[in-house]
Automatic annotation (TrEMBL):
The chain crosses the membrane at residues 14-37. It comes from the Bacteria. It comes from Sideroxyarcus emersonii. It holds the Pfam family FixH. This is Nitrogen fixation protein FixH. InterPro entries: FixH. Keywords: Membrane, Transmembrane, Transmembrane helix.
Length: 169
């Protein structure tokens, strides 16, 4: 019979095993909390930020300042609906801060957040001064974004679209 008056339960190896397991779990969790609050970043994460495809904060801020100074405006004409496997026509107009058309090279990167291996880029053709046209054929349904990059000489400008749905049919 098991009761509080029976002290033989403390001699049971299963009770000691469960207590030891609880102590080990609490110790491991305390170690993780200590590492998390230690205040230093992991060297592995820091190296990934520096060597990965990401830009450093300074280069990103420099690019944003340059784009802000350019103050180019874009107007994007999107198709009503986008269907997988059917080329969708996009027309993009670019003007500088004075309203003059911007002639240069345009590349549009189709970005799929859920699967980076499916990202692809499409060069757009300038059909009139400051007006570009391209056909994008999306290989998969789901949410996509477009990253539009325009370069005129040394000047670079980029703008991103909101997410949109590519339907199966």
């Amino acid at each position: 019979m098991i009761s509080q008056g029976n002290k033989s339960g403390l001699r049971n190896p299963w009770v000691w095993g469960m207590l030891a397991l609880i102590v080990i779990v609490l110790s491991v969790n305390a170690t993780f909390v200590w590492f998390a609050t230690k205040g230093t970043r992991s060297a592995l994460v820091e190296r990934d930020y520096k060597t990965g495809d990401r830009q450093s904060n300074e280069s990103l801020l420099s690019e944003l300042r340059m784009q802000h100074q350019l103050a180019w405006q874009t107007e994007i004409k999107k198709p009503e609906s986008v269907v997988v496997g059917t080329p969708a026509t996009y027309q993009i107009a670019v003007q500088d801060r004075d309203g003059k058309p911007v002639s240069g090279n345009m590349e549009v990167v189709s970005y799929r957040a859920s699967d980076a291996s499916q990202d692809f880029s499409t060069p757009f053709r300038e059909v009139a001064p400051g007006r570009y046209q391209g056909y994008i054929n999306f290989p998969l349904k789901g949410y996509w974004e477009l990253h539009i990059r325009v370069q005129r000489g040394e000047e670079r400008f980029g703008v991103d679209t909101e997410k949109f749905m590519v339907s199966a049919s």
